[in-house]
Amino acid sequence: MAEALRGQRLDALYASDLCRAAETAEAIARATGLAVRYDPRLREIHQGEWQGLLVTEIERRYPDLFRRWQQVPLRVTLPGGESIAQMRERVLAAVEDIARQHPGQRVAVVAHKLPIAVVKYHYQSIPLERIWELIPPNAGWEVVAVG
After folding, report:
1. What does DSSP say about strands 12-15 and 107-110: parallel, antiparallel, or unpaired?
2. Domains of the chain by range and CATH?
3. Per-residue DSSP letters for the chain?
4. In this structure, are residues 135 and 111 in contact, taking their beta carbons and an 8 Å threshold?
5. C or N terminus of the chain, fewer CB within 10 Å?
6. What's the average model confidence in pLDDT over 131-136?
7. Mean of pLDDT over the chain
8. How many other C-beta atoms lie within 10 A of the C-beta of residue 96?
9. pLDDT in tens, 104-131
10. Residues in Cβ contact with 21 at an 8 Å cutoff, skipping those fewer than 6 apart
């Protein structure tokens, strides 16, 4: 991703402070010469009791809740964690703050799958019920117009 973005005009670089996003952002920073600004509001959904478990473990320990999470994720709050609505609220607040700080500029934001999906839903007017379809591939990038 860093090589793909090397030739792009970017004015600022923000990232989640979680390890994978931070490492990706650091590689982009080296390729572009930008400093990374970390914002914990860009973190992945807090998975509570599911944090650190393999999908197979979650399916085994929480079969009914996992099935609901796959089928109707907007109606599920992860045990001890967040709902998609809660995560959406914090991520969109971060993106709006970033946009206000950089009017008319091109900003790279390095985040995680669900946060990226809610940004796409919000700014591309896609129904949030299609959240699973909006999940990007690892190390993928795309342009989303904000504002």
Report:
1. parallel
2. 1-46+91-147 (3.40.50.1240), 47-81 (no CATH)
3. -HHHHHTS--SEEEE-SSHHHHHHHHHHHHHH-PPEEE-GGGSPPP-GGGTT--HHHHHHHSHHHHHHHHH-GGG-B-TTS-BHHHHHHHHHHHHHHHHHHSTT--EEEE--HHHHHHHHHHHTT--GGGGGGGPPPTT--------
4. no
5. C
6. 86
7. 92
8. 13
9. 999 999 999 999 999 999 998 888 888 8
10. 15, 42, 110, 111, 112
Residue indicated by tokens 């197979």: 56
**How many C-beta atoms lie closer than 10 Å to residue 10's C-beta?**
16
Q: What is the pLDDT of residues 44-86, one digit of tens each?
A: 999 999 999 999 999 999 999 999 999 999 999 999 999 999 9
Query: Sorting pLDDT into bands at 50, 70 and 90, what band is 1?
Result: confident
Residues 72, 132 contacting (CB under 8 angstroms): no
Pairing of strands 107-110, 36-38: unpaired
Of all residues in the chain, the percent with pLDDT exceeding 70 is 100
Rg (alpha carbons) of the chain, rounded to whole number: 16
CA distances, 101 to each of 12, 52, 104 (Å): 10, 34, 10
